[in-house]
Amino acid sequence: MNIAHSFNNWRQYRRTVSELGRMSNHRLNDIGIERAEIQRIAREALAR
User: Fold this and answer.
1) How far apart are CA 3 and CA 39, in angstroms?
2) Which among 9, 11, 28, 41 is placed 20 to 30 Å from 2, CA to CA?
3) Which residues does the UniProt record annotate as the domain YjiS-like (predicted)?
């Protein structure tokens, strides 16, 4: 894996964590996510 690809993956991970982190607990619950799952979900999003 090259540096540019790794950097892009890191940016996408941070963007996902940030966007989900800004959501209220109520909104996260509406989409079936608990706050404690945010980092796992962001990592899984990269694997797709």
Assistant:
1) 22
2) 41
3) 3-39
